[in-house]
Every structure is written in C-alpha cells, then in structure tokens.
Design goal:
- There is one protein chain.
- This protein folds into two domains: 158 residues, Ribosomal Protein S5, domain 2 (2-Layer Sandwich); 109 residues, Alpha-Beta Plaits (2-Layer Sandwich).
- 28% of the residues lie in helices and 28% in strands.
- The chain has a four-stranded mixed sheet with strand order 1-4-6-5, covered by helices on one side.
- The longest helix is centred in the middle third of the chain and has 16 residues.
- The radius of gyration is 19 Å and the shape is globular.
C-alpha cells in the first residue's frame, strides 16, 4: 500500500499565553497542500524476528535516532494494542524538516491510516485522531486532512470553512532550521485571548487585507535569529504576492498569488514548491 503524506501551511498563528503544564495556548489555521512525501507499507512475509517493523528511508536525510521516527512510533502504538503483523516500510522523504510544514506529523498520521486499512482494524476517524494526538500535536489534523482551526496547545481542532482554490502558492525554504522550543521561548505572548482579534474573524476578511491583519506571532522572534527569512518575505511581496508569511514556527515562507509569478532574484532558487491550490 502506498500513500502520499502531504504538507500543511499555517495561515496566521497567535501565541496566547503559557499554560500551567509548560505548553502554550495558541490559535492557528491549518490548510493542506499537495506537496508530499511518499510512504509505502506492506506486510513482511519474511519476518525478521528481531524487528517487526523494517524501516527504509530515502530522499532528504532525517537526523536523530531512527527509533524516534514518528512512522515507527505510529506502528509501535498500534502494534501494542493490536499485535500487528510484521511490516516493511519505505519512506521517500521530500518535505524539508524543521520547515513548519508538518511533514513528520503527516507521515505518522498516514501510517496510522494505512495500518488501519491494511489490517482491517476498523478504527473510525475519531479513534484515529485520538491515537494520532498521542504521537504529536499536529498529527490529528492529517487524519481528516481538511482546513481546520487549532487552539489550546494545538491538540484541539475543529473544521474550518476556508477555500484557497484559485490561488497560486509559492513555498520558499532556504535550508535554515527553526527550533520550535526556542521559537516559543522568545515569542511575544498576547497573554489574553481577544475574541474580536481571533484568527477566526481575521481570516474571514478579504485576502487582500491579510497583509496587514493576518499575523504569525513567531515571526518577530524567528526573524531575529534567522534574518534571511524577513528578506524572503519582502521578496515574495516584491514578486507580487497578495499575502506572505512564515508557516508555523518556521522556517518555510509562503506566498499566495493571484496569478503565476515570474519569480526573479536570489531567493528564487530556494523555491521548493509552487502550484495552484
């Protein structure tokens, strides 16, 4: 079985306040896009007794201990509950890491969905979402994979009526890595939730007004540590973007256009994705 775990972009992100559990209350809107990895999972008939989940990875290098990879963790989560058959898994990694695109979370969610189908586990959407939430705050979103408003510490989500059909998306990734923990540490918190300024209301404004009203609170601190991202944002506007911003805690920059741009200048070589939404 093969699937294509896709990325998401953030449209606005408000850091509200710090919670008693050490996490932060936030609000943001996730929007799925077609930029994706490739994930394959098949039952391993030639079972290696010392490894129920044989994992092979190509494409972009994933740093860190392989045992902490979210795809493997997704398998282990369901294996503990259902004693799954052994599998062979191949991940072709195309989505950049530390990019604010949710690539790892998407891989994990798609692994859960594939295992559910492959072995007839009969888990419904709610059941899959609750298990995905165990793996990471963004993972649940990719179960339904539809525009959603996320709030609280990012685990709570609700469907959000939004369509960007007819807009042209450009994603720029310079290779810079934004550390999420550091981004939260230095983010300027709002401290109080203001319903009148909530993203739910702001994002309903015409897209032409997003430049002045739709804000990612992480930009202030992340741009200080990675100044080139501020340059990329200005460059996207010079190329004709209606709206440009950082996705999540970075470090990818997104631009929404009304038509296909020519994309001239030094940042054009860092474009990793461009297409109609």
């Amino acid at each position: 079985m093969i699937s294509y775990p896709n990325a998401k972009i953030n449209l606005g992100l408000h850091v509200i306040n710090k919670r008693d559990d050490g996490f932060h209350n936030i609000e943001t809107v996730f929007y799925p896009i077609n930029f994706s990895d490739m994930l394959e999972c098949i039952e391993n008939k030639a079972y290696a007794k010392n490894n129920k989940c044989v994992f092979v990875q190509h494409g972009l290098h994933i740093s860190g201990n392989i045992d902490t990879n979210l795809v493997l963790r997704a398998y282990k989560l369901l294996d503990k509950e259902f004693d799954l058959p052994p599998v062979l898994v191949h991940l072709n990694k195309l989505l950049p890491m530390g990019a604010g695109l949710g690539g790892g979370s998407s891989d994990a969610a798609y692994m859960l969905k594939m295992l559910n189908k492959l072995f007839d586990l009969n888990l419904d959407t709610t059941s899959l979402e609750s298990r995905a939430a165990v793996l990471g705050s963004d993972c649940s979103f990719f179960i339904q994979n539809k525009p959603a408003y996320l709030f609280g510490k990012g685990h709570e989500l609700e469907p959000f009526d939004l369509s960007l059909t007819g807009k042209y998306l450009v994603l720029v990734n310079t290779g810079a890595h934004s550390n999420t923990a550091i981004a939260y540490k230095y983010a300027k918190r709002r401290e109080v939730f203001n319903e009148e300024q909530s993203l739910k209301k702001v994002i309903k404004l015409p897209i032409e007004s997003w430049k002045e009203n739709l804000v990612n609170d992480f930009e202030l601190s992340v741009f200080e540590s990675i100044p080139e991202l501020k340059e990329v944002k200005s460059w996207l506007y010079k190329q004709g973007a209606t709206y440009a911003a950082m996705s999540g805690s970075g470090a990818s920059m997104l631009g929404l256009f009304d038509e296909v741009p020519k994309l001239e200048g030094k940042w054009s070589k860092y474009v990793v994705y461009k297409d109609w939404l």
